[in-house]
Amino acid sequence: MKECVLVTGGAGYIGTHTTVELIEAGYDVVVVDNLSNSELAAVEGVRKITGAEIPFEQADCTDKEAMSRIFDRYKFNSIIHFAASKAVGESVQKPLLYYRNNLDSLLTILELMRDKGVRNIVFSSSCTVYGQPKVLPVTEQTPRQPATSPYGNTKQICEDIIRDTVSAHNEMYGIALRYFNPIGAHPSALIGELPKGVPGNLVPFITQTAAGIRECLSIFGDDYDTPDGSAVRDYIDVVDLARAHVVAVGRMIQGKSRSNYEFFNVGTGQGRSVLELVAAFEKATGVKVPHKIVGRRAGDIEKIWADTSFANQELGWKATRSIEDTLASAWAWEKHLRNIK
Ligand code: UD1
After folding, report:
1. Are 3 and 74 in contact (CB under 8 A)?
2. How far apart are CA 159 and CA 174, in angstroms?
3. 89 alpha carbon to ligand 1 midpoint, in Å?
4. CB atoms within 10 A of CB 90
């Protein structure tokens, strides 16, 4: 019988790509999403790519009764928990919303896992837990630093809640994946990132500027201590990132975990500046992106990239897609959305 995985936030950007990779790896998937920041059409995109009938449940992970019914209706032993609020700036304005939503949904899921004997959880964490590291690249031994936003704090607290829960309940296993900067879209251009309103993240802003929806990309700062002065990140292709979740689930199912709680850096190992990324986009697509330098964005760190050797060795996983292919896929998705030929 096929193993089934519950994917919370499965209509979202990383959730849809992960669902595709899970199905292609032979899993059954049940998707839960409250559609607060996503569209049902995204699940349709996943169905189109995979040809699979994917059960979809519209529910909020903080709703214990609704979630309990979903746990009873489907037989799954593993959960990938994406459902969370994720805008750094908004979290500073509305901290209670972020703490309530992100903590409550995880607590609800863990209580149900404990009560109903579901063993494995993969958690969507972030490199934001490292703050601005003193030494680069960051390994899993790099100490976490006090969070600079409520959003970042929820990632740290959620990691700790999972660690404590799986150490107290020995039959349970958890893996936190600390994502660097996920970008790009599925090669089919049938799913991708769907930002609401003006994009806060770099790549959707680039593709919308290339599409003529935004006039000009603002580059936040050129006076950082980096080779060209713009900030440096580790941009990871969303399909590569999705595959890391499939490997993490398989690791727990196959009993390969070294301890009940593990965490991994999921990046490429290569840092790129904002200006380099814009140049790579222009090279990959042949489309110019009007841009100007403006002041630094409050709360931004200067530079971060991953040491991925632990994830590469332990998980047998590696990011493979080139930055050009990734950026071309982001552009193909934007064109699909806007009906641009
Ligand atoms: C941050 C968090 C990440 C979180 C994500 C959610 C860190 C290290 N990362 O990513 O954990 O999941 O937010 O949104 O805290 N930029 C521009 N112009 C723009 C937009 C962005 O120059 O219009 C620059 C930013 O200043 C930054 C880079 O592009 O240097 C990437 O920005 P963004 O895509 O927003 O991601 P992070 O802020 O790195």
Report:
1. no
2. 9
3. 11
4. 16
**Tens of each residue's pLDDT in the chain, 341 residues:** 799 999 999 999 999 999 999 999 999 999 999 999 999 999 999 999 999 999 999 999 999 999 999 999 999 999 999 999 999 999 999 999 999 999 999 999 999 999 999 999 999 999 999 999 999 999 999 999 999 899 999 999 999 999 999 999 999 999 999 999 999 999 999 999 999 899 999 999 999 999 999 999 999 999 999 999 999 999 999 999 999 999 999 999 999 999 999 999 999 999 999 999 999 999 999 999 999 999 999 889 999 999 999 999 999 999 999 999 999 999 999 999 999 98
**Could you tell me if the CB of 124 is within 6 A of ligand 1?**
no
> Measured between alpha carbons, how far is 7 from 118 in angstroms, rounded to an integer?
13
CA of residue 202 to ligand 1 center, whole Å:
6
Atom of ligand 1 nearest to the CA of 274: 29
Of 274, 304, 305, the residue with max ligand 1 atoms within 8 A of its CB, to mutate for a pocket test, comes to: 274
Reported as half-sphere exposure (CB side, CA atoms, 13 A), residue 137 has a value of 20
Distance of alpha carbon 174 from alpha carbon 22, whole angstroms? 18
Number of the ligand 1 atom closest to the C-alpha atom of 233: 39
Ligand 1 within 6 A of CB of 205: yes
| Catalytic positions, written as ranges | 151
Burial of 55 (0-12, 13-18, 19+ CB in 10 A): middle
Q: DSSP for 146-180?
A: --SSHHHHHHHHHHHHHHHHHHHSTT-EEEEEEE-
Q: Is the CB of 126 under 6 A from ligand 1?
A: yes
- pTM assigned to the model: 0.98
Tell whether ligand 1 has an atom less than 6 A from the beta carbon of residue 219: yes
